[in-house]
Amino acid sequence: MVFVEPPEDWEEETRLVHGGEYRDSETGSIVTPIFVSAIYKYPEGNPYGYKYARNSSPTIEALERKAAAVERAAEAVAFSSGMAAISSAAMALLKPGSKLVTTKDIYGTSYEFFTTFLRSYGIEVDERGVGEGVLERIDKNTDVVFVETISNPLLIVPPVDEIAKACEEVGAKLIVDNTFATPINFLPLKVGAYGVVHSASKYLAGHNDVLGGIFATNDKKFALNLKNVRRMLGGIPDPQQAYFIIRGLKTLHVRVAYQNEAALRIAKFLRDHPKVERVYYPCLEEHPSYPVAKRLLKGCGGVVSFEVRGNGFDAIKVMKKVKVVQRTASLGGVESIITHPATMTHHTVPPEVRKELGIKDNLLRLSVGLENVEDLEADLDQALSSI
């Protein structure tokens, strides 16, 4: 049994295709197989060998090796969902009395987990900073800082490099949710982050057909501890899940390159549309995060948010009128998806917090897929013309 260990000089595209793959000399297979066995012959003398599928399996290990290679990390740990990765890492790093600094403008379930679940266990959670405002919230009592590379849904890009430096100065650990940016557009560990988390259900897998999560880090000791936490909490993906994510990762660079370009074009189209009030996309010069995005990111990803001219009912009407674009609450796949954050992804965020952040009822979030851009523009135009 041999896993492909990518040389340092391999570039991202080659790492995505070959890195971490399981290669079997007996069969000559070049595709990692799905090991469905729940149990394994007990590995005498090797406490880290395969024993039980809740611990690991060759398919899971191949996914972890590939994810680590792509994020330029020493280790990666695979999970059954992005939230399993976030919650498991948080519980491994924090204890009663610990302090977590995060932001209000993150994924709604992440916000809910931090501000309700963690607080109920005596963990101090400071979520008052947004974007570069996080810097002023970090102090000597801070244990963990959690930010998103590109926030959800207003696409704020925090100065991750500066936040990493501030964390280093006080001994805090920076965890970056890199789901929206992907490792194609940004590598948080390269600028000093302690860990990187992904909802692999989104861009990494890329086809809206599987759930999964990834945590990557250069701290091998913590990665081992996190695998033990996963063993106890049961958040490991099954082999079929892992296989789909492995397969999706092989085309990540091609998909993200197209989505970067298509999303920028659609952002400009929406900016000029008479039925659109405001567009949020970090690669537009008028976006408040444009200077940071230009400095840190290779591309701004495939998500564009925009406010329609009207109220929440008008936004929902537009969402219901699209034909090519699909109405649901996810992103990062080959199909373009439209979402109403106030009633979907951020409905668990208190209304006063949504108002403070600027998540208005007339806001829509668009995840650009791989369809023809002109078809998407025509679809959005006919939907917007209905209000």
> How many angstroms does the end-to-end distance come to?
60 Å
Measured as a percent range, the helix fraction is 25-40%
CATH topology of the largest domain: Aspartate Aminotransferase, domain 2
CA radius of gyration? 21 Å
Number of domains: 2
Assign the CATH architecture of the largest domain: 3-Layer(aba) Sandwich
Please list the strands of the largest sheet in the order they lie side by side. Answer: 3-9-8-7-6-4-5
What share of residues are in beta strands? 15-25%
What is the number of helical segments per DSSP (H or I, 4+ residues)?
13
The SSE order reads EHEHEHEHEEHEHEEHHHEHEHEEHEH
Number of strand elements: 14
The profile of the biggest β sheet is: 7 strands, mixed
Q: Based on CA inertia axes, which overall geometry fits?
A: globular
Low-confidence parts lasting 5 or more residues at pLDDT below 50? Answer: none
